Amino acid sequence: MSLLKFLAINALELSAPATPHLLQHQQTQTQAKPQGWMQLSGHPESIVPTSTGIVRKRISGFEDSEVHAYRLICQEPQTAQIVPAYFGMQEIQAQHYIELQDLLAGFRDPCVMDIKMGSRTFLESEVSNATLRPDLYQKMIAVDAGAPTPAEHEARAITKLRYMTFRESLSSSHSKGFRIEALRLRGRPPVKDLKTCRSSEQIVQTIEQFLAARRSVQKELLKRLKHMRLVIEQSSFFARHEIVGSSIFIVYDDERVGVWLIDFAKCRELPPQVRVDHRSAWTPGNREEGLLRGMDELIRSFEEVYARCGSHRSCLKI
């Protein structure tokens, strides 16, 4: 299996690695350890290929949030088309896994982009503790010594909420509702240091380089992104759930284009009395995460790239 095969697998972002038992089981099935294993982020060896067109992802158990999400999504035919195909669960050596579509199956040396969606990529439960933490203060000043307020400098400690919102502000997540996590250009190794790509011009130039002035690909991607947005707006599943930390995964080669919404590990069902539109600003308790706001901004960025190339402005080429 090629190195690139695992770039798509990585975008599923596991919370825990695969066990040696599973790896041994897989090697028995495939008769050889996969070559070129890599991930852009997350724990190593957290996703394992099973057979042609399928990957296996570790989950916490049968009640895992991602299982819940895929089961409900499968009940909506239109919504099921914008996510990886779900093939069910497996239990191996007391570990639980879901089986999903291999998003790179059928592509040849494609260009790949992973875009983290939302203006908030952490759960409210992750920042509910108001304890002042010196370690997070040290992390903040290591990045930007001028970021803490005078009171925070005096206390030499900050809350986790303060640190997480600071971290989001370093990328385009806070300002745009999305950030480009990583990309891979044809014939080149993945580029992973893109989280500080946050200005409109930086984002557009990055997308220009990724698309390499291919008008047909630009047009098809815009069509699919707009369709995905419409599906989300009309979906009962998305109306009832908070979608935190999901990504849009884009892949294309000379013949095909693919766009999927992936990673539902932080998907949470909303309380009956809570409604979200996925565009409003987040305040603690309202459960807004900015998924559709990010899609609006992402589409605008792709439209800008399309307009620039159409007006014969210089387009970056791979």
Automatic annotation (TrEMBL):
Record's GO cellular component terms: cytoplasm; nucleus
Keyword Hydrolase carried by entry: no
Descriptive protein name: Kinase
Source organism of the structure: Drosophila rhopaloa (Fruit fly)
One GO BP annotation of this record: inositol phosphate biosynthetic process
Annotated signal peptide: 1-18
EC number assigned by the record: 2.7.-.-
Record bears the keyword Nucleotidyltransferase: no
Family: Belongs to the inositol phosphokinase (IPK) family.
Keywords (A to Z) from UniProt: ATP-binding, Kinase, Nucleotide-binding, Signal, Transferase
EC category name: transferase
Top-rank taxon, per record: Eukaryota
Entry-linked Pfam families: IPK
